[in-house]
Specification:
This protein is α/β, with parallel strands linked by helices. The chain has a single domain, classed as Rossmann fold (3-Layer(aba) Sandwich), CATH 3.40.50.300. About 55% of the residues lie in helices and about 10% in strands. Strands 2-3-1-4-5 form a five-stranded parallel beta sheet, sandwiched between helices.
Length: about 240
């Protein structure tokens, strides 16, 4: 697989979850993974940045709000490059082998996040992000992207509240992006909307504030339809 994904019965399915922190995407990914596994499918779930030993180290630099006090201000271009270093390692080490082995890969964030956060949020521009994706990731595209896009204010409130709890419970802080202001997140939010308009065959937007269970059911229906189109069958042990 080197260009936009074309599912075949011998290949797995690559599904990404996108949205702001606090949108519920991580919860929904876990629920989908459990539902698919219960139905007999083999699932590989991971997050970006992270998901490999190298990626976890990169994540600790990119997301920890203490990084800039230790390392100095991280340049937007350095942030973008680190995100793609993580992504390239994840593709080579986890995603492509799992797809070749017929698994369903669920990934919490992918290049759409870089286009939204670094391209729009950091004002680096869409074309630079997409050019890096072609060069570093061989233009590997998801088969399906589930974009959770509830109202901006509600997402940010949940994300910041969750991070405060995480700091208190685990002692780790992944709040570097949540410290950004409303203008930054407005740009990110609007870029996600633009990505959805541009890539309607790939991106399914879930923008309502329904219950976790209702959203999970809708996601399962969307994924079941894509699995049927791809001819993806249950894994036989």
């Amino acid at each position: 697989m080197s260009q936009a994904s074309i599912p075949t019965p011998n290949r797995g399915l690559f599904i990404t979850f996108e949205g702001l922190d606090g949108s519920g995407k991580t919860t929904q990914l876990k629920l989908l993974a459990a539902a698919l596994e219960a139905d007999g499918h083999r699932v590989v779930a991971l997050r970006q940045p992270g998901g490999t030993p190298l990626g976890d180290r990169i994540r600790s630099i990119l997301l920890d709000s203490r990084s800039e006090s230790d390392l100095g201000a991280i340049a937007p271009e350095a942030e973008m490059a680190l995100m793609f270093a993580d992504r390239a390692q994840s593709l080579r080490q986890v995603i492509l082998p799992a797809l070749a082995d017929g698994a369903i890969v669920l990934c919490d964030r992918y290049t759409d996040s870089s286009e939204a956060y670094q391209g729009a949020g950091r004002n680096l521009g869409t074309e630079r992000i997409l050019a890096l994706h072609r060069a570093v990731c061989n233009n590997v595209q998801p088969d399906l992207t589930l974009l959770l896009l509830p109202p901006l204010a509600a997402s940010l409130k949940r994300a910041r509240r969750r991070n405060d709890r995480h700091v208190q419970q685990a002692g780790t802080d992944e709040n570097r992006f949540e410290r950004e202001g409303d203008e930054f997140y407005t740009r990110v939010y609007e870029q996600y909307r633009e990505i959805a308009r541009r890539d309607q065959n790939r991106v399914v937007v879930i923008a309502d504030e329904a219950s976790i269970t209702t959203i999970a059911q809708r996601i399962l229906e969307v994924v079941a339809h894509r699995l049927a189109i791809a001819g993806h069958s249950r894994h036989e042990p």
